[in-house]
# Entry
Amino acid sequence: MSDKHNHPLPDQEESNLKVQGAIPQPPSVNKNASMRIRRKRRTLFSIDEYVGGILNGNRSILSQAITLVESLLPAHHKTAQDIIERCLPHAGNCIRLGITGVPGVGKSTFIEAFGKYLTDKGHKVAVLAIDPSSQRTKGSILGDKTRMEELANDPNAFIRPSPSAGSLGGVAQKTRETSILCEAAGFDVIIIETVGVGQSETAVHSMVDFFLLLMLAGAGDELQGIKRGIMEMADSIVINKADGDNYNKATLAKASYQSALHLFPPAESGWTPKVDTCSAIEKNNVDKVWEMILEYTAKTKDNGYFELKRKQQSKSIMLDTIDQQLKSAFYQDSQVQKEMSFIEENLLDENLSSYQAAAKLLDIYFQRCKLRED
Ligand code: GDP
# Structure
């Protein structure tokens, strides 16, 4: 099969933007069709093979393990958890970076330039995304094949689109677990991208060592819809598109963000957030951003904050997991599901207050837990 322009297609095994097989869904009405699909997508590897493959840096096995992490099927969930458990001791030896900014600020152009700079220096870079609004079929923030094409074809980079739409908590958890697998596979720089428009920045901030906010100069409102809270989370603000006619504006914006950041209370890390400019498209100053990150890492490893933050993150992941599992156990309980609409009706007819309705449903659930114990 030849391409009429004589451009070879990227090797499917090596290309990071290979479209992943869809996550298998519960059986459909057409039994025969679903049997065929299931047979084709049946787990091919044992847990030992998955773990061995990941630790050997086998990208194809890594991709398939991530697909299990993202799967909604309970059987896949169990296998994925076993793989993660075994990979955990090999994870953590990396720097985790969060990158955010409004759509159009140049995140993918920046990550491509930055990622290439790092792979040229011998690093292995994994790029993950958190975009709870995305659906793989509709193209997520990293699902568009034209994004980061050069990096996608770099054997030392691995790009994975956001898990498909779901609750932010669920999407974030899957991204964290994916990160563990990538780290165990030897990726030492993990970049987690998110769109700077909602709550997902907080989720990303809670799982990275360094948080970078990309901004534009002179785009009307200085804060560009980026809330003060997000600026406060940033370890660095980088003003992108500092090139051509925009160069002077970017330099002025740098000074104004610098003085804005001075008004924030000192960070627990002992690090004063830094502001710089860059041109992702001209690959200008991308090296400075990396130097800044190295400086941050050296400083916070020295003063103990780096480890402390990771420990705090582990604790909050534990608490988040408990929250999510309690919630899902409650909503999946058959008796709760059965009573829910009846109690809702009573609430809407004003026979019950919201608190009474909630208490009734919780009572049903707790009674069921007790029965199960006995
Ligand atoms: P994202 O939505 O934040 O991922 O932004 P993109 O990386 O897709 O970039 C949005 C647009 O800005 C594209 O047309 C890029 O070519 C352009 N762009 C990105 N970085 C730069 C830059 O450093 N300078 C200039 N002049 N344009 C840029």
The longest strand covers residues 95-101.
